[in-house]
Amino acid sequence: MQGIGPILPLSRDSQFGYYSSNTSYKDQVEQNFKTLVLTAPGERVMNPDFGIGLRHYLFEPKHNVVLKLKQRINSQIQKYMPYIKINRLLFDSNKQNELLNDSLLLSVKIEYEVPDFNVASELIFQAEDIN
Question: What is the C-alpha separation between 111 and 18, in angstroms, rounded?
Fold first, then answer.
């Protein structure tokens, strides 16, 4: 199989060229989606709107940011990755519901699928992964 795109972070490998490459669409979509979620708006040269900027929401009170973050995720998916369908967005899913309103945003779980490739997966971001 031929490489689809480089694996990030870049590492040398001569199998598909100069760098290691993703060989499945699932891996490439997951990498691209993760990049979209972690890139801060304004960080990408020549495309200042690109990115969700999850780091900016990390320590905000949950009741202030959940709706804003959901809207940002959905708008960025529609604009940059319209082939992805979001099935569920979960915030702090490991805590009891009554504690969520006063908690800090510690984790985000995004369950998604790519119908064209028959791929279903999830991305989980914890505080230690985002910093």
Answer: 33
Q: Where are the domains of the chain?
A: 5-130
Name the CATH topology of 5-130.
Nuclear Transport Factor 2; Chain: A, (3.10.450)
The pTM is what?
0.82
Would you state the structure tokens that stand for residue 125, as one six-digit string?
A: 């971001």
Per-residue pLDDT of the chain (131 residues; tens, 9 = 90+): 578 888 888 888 877 778 888 888 899 999 999 999 999 999 999 999 999 998 887 777 777 788 889 999 999 999 999 999 999 998 875 554 444 445 554 688 999 999 998 999 999 987 666 65
